[in-house]
């Protein structure tokens, strides 16, 4: 551009303004636009206003045709198998455990690198969470640490895809097959992720998604449960609504549905007004994922070789959904203070959950989990993160801590 001065005038000024926005002044300590950069934002598509309003006007608020439409789009666009839309990701985990027949006396093996909802639902069904160690390089359960934790009471393995990066599903499935265990994926962070070309939501017995406010795809609160086995999927649909098979219980002459309740059901269905928000947010989902990946690449390129940072590993046989961007950092407390002081949110997001009284009340001897607890950190990644903001984040990290 500088070599073509005859272009000067309005175009020239616009181009220069664009470039200066992308190239932060080295040493800058105020985020572009002056506002702090949050770790997460809640994404609401502009079309949601109209879509949700239409539901309110119709007064048909509860589960109806929009929930069905949302489910068919989850299946068509994200590759989820038999998705049942529910009112939360926690409900999805709980219902998966129930339908899988996990109950009192059973054990479920999972990693502590997760939100408490994963292990809490295990306790809710009367079973015991048994913690296995993680891989220090990515925060996911270490298949090599699962097998020796298996006892005659083990019923299931719960695989949490930390930050959206898929677990070693082949190894986990092989262990499950060998020992006759059920596999449940906590995929709260990983809609749109793939493992060896297969979408998350199509691989194991049960996959649980969350549509909570700060997750990739929000319905305000909500979730989805995918059961691969069609009979189990039918059970999911029945038991998400009290245990009544809505589709096959016609209203009789007396005005009551014809059904016989045979097992415990829940009030876990999604509502149409929430599905309307989910449908609006599904529009452009793929494009937002492309943008998210571009920010991730920007971080990886910008932070390559920075002393004191060790990046998480990323195998090429799987594609993360990139809910989080994390790495290991030396002198973490100094890092947190320095980066936060320059208007950039940073967080561990979650510490290993095994220390909670409900789950045992102590930090267990899990070598990699304890190392992970001591060094992991996450920096902003969300749909509203601009290239300028990401450049600023890179710049302040490179200024040191
Ligand atoms: C968000 C989350 C959940 C719970 O989802 P809700 O929709 O809030 O119930 C479960 N597991 C993990 C790992 C999560 O991050």
UniProtKB/TrEMBL annotation:
InterPro entries from the UniProt entry: DegT/StrS_aminotransferase, PyrdxlP-dep_Trfase, PyrdxlP-dep_Trfase_major, PyrdxlP-dep_Trfase_small
Gene Ontology molecular function: transaminase activity
Pfam families reported in the protein's UniProt record: DegT_DnrJ_EryC1 (PF01041)
Top-level taxon in the UniProt lineage: Bacteria
Keyword Transcription carried by entry: no
Keywords tagged on the record: Aminotransferase, Pyridoxal phosphate, Transferase
The keyword Chloroplast belongs to this UniProt entry's keyword annotation: no
Family classification: Belongs to the DegT/DnrJ/EryC1 family.
Designated name of the protein: DegT/DnrJ/EryC1/StrS family aminotransferase
Species annotation: Hymenobacter glaciei
